[in-house]
Amino acid sequence: MMNSNTASSSTANPDAAGSPDPPAPRRSSKRPKYSKFTQQELPACKPILTPKWVILTFLVVGIAFVPIGITSLLASRDVVEIVDRYETDCIPVANRTDKVAFIQSNASKTCTRQITVTKHMKRPIYVYYQLDNFYQNHRRYVKSRNDEQLKKRSKTSETSQCEPEDTTPDGKPIVPCGLIAWSLFNDTYTFSRNKRQLTVNKKGIAWKSDRDHKFGKEVFPSNFQNGTLRGGARLDESIPLSKQEDLIVWMRTAALPTFRKLYGKIEVDLEENDIIDVILENNYNTYSFSGKKKLVLSTTSWLGGKNDFLGIAYLTVGGLCFFLALSFTIVYLVKPRRLGDPSYLSWNRNPGGH
């Protein structure tokens, strides 16, 4: 009986016979597998900024930046630049109380200016027009164009995003469409010296990448500026957009409200005290938004146009570094401080437990 009960008990409860416990479920861990990469223990340069190193660093930066600043400033000062603001002077005195009405009228807008060359200007002399308080970076203005239409002849009917200058009242697509093209600058300049006309070269004033890739050679203007309200210049419908360089320059919108755009190049030298007669057509309406218009003649240097900011910035940083190097040297000599033991730094210890 005892054996029978024992056998029955063993059969009923197999765990009681000493069978091993089932394995416990493995706990999930987000701890990454140890490596020198994951634990950021790879060999690295970890310099200790001692006073000598700090002083030397500031001194080297100062020695490098000051000559660069002086060179940049001298290059900028070598650029000869003449700026003539004309938006007010080219309005007749009797019409200056209502400039907007005058610029929108059919009255003659021809204006004569005289520019005196203050210093010898070596060719090529770049002719720019400058506009102030004109926000070409406004979101709706920037988006008001259709790049596919500008590039491909098969897409000339595409006018999406060009509202309100997308189609004519009878539904014909405008090429090029959009507010940017519609507001194309339309003041013109004619130059002469000693009653001899100076030719302005308007070829090659746009970026080559824009001419070759953004404006199609088989895309021609159509229905452009045919509305009752003209925004700016007209375009020759017999010339493809890739050769309308005034338009291409204008379509590259400016980031700031004051900007210059290239009008052309004068390919002869101008001597000091030369008198340049300028006949301009003051057509562009900047009076509605209190804008300013300026005519700019400028040479260039190896650094570009006239811009003192880069040179001043380098001189400022270099001078500040010299000042800090001198200040730290005086502090270090007058009141030195003993450097701590670098062996206590964490990266100088051996990682424990690995």
Topology readout:
Elements: H1 2-12, H2 51-77, E1 81-85, H3 99-103, E2 110-116, E3 125-132, H4 139-143, H5 147-151, H6 179-182, E4 188-193, E5 196-198, E6 200-201, H7 208-213, H8 245-251, E7 259-266, E8 275-281, E9 292-298, H9 309-334
Antiparallel strand pairs: 1-9, 2-8, 3-7, 3-9, 4-5, 4-8, 6-7
Helix pairs in contact: 2-9
Specify Rg, calculated over alpha carbons: 37 Å
Question: So what's the overall shape?
Answer: flat
Strand proportion, as a percent range, falls in 5-15%
Query: Strands of the biggest beta sheet: in what spatial order?
Result: 1-9-3-7-6
| Amino-to-carboxy terminus distance | 61 Å
Structural class comes to alpha+beta
Mean pLDDT: 88
Please report the number of helical segments.
9
Question: How would you sum up this structure, described in words?
Answer:
By secondary structure, the chain is of the alpha+beta class. Helices cover about 25% and strands about 15% of the residues. It has nine helices and nine strands. The strands form two sheets. A five-stranded antiparallel sheet has the order 1-9-3-7-6. The chain is flat and about 90 Å long.
Key attributes of the depicted protein:
354 residues, alpha+beta, four-stranded antiparallel beta sheet, disordered N terminus, 9 helices, 9 strands
Provide a compact summary of the structure:
The chain is 27% helix and 15% strand. It has nine helices and nine strands. Strand 4 and strand 5 (196-198) form a beta hairpin.
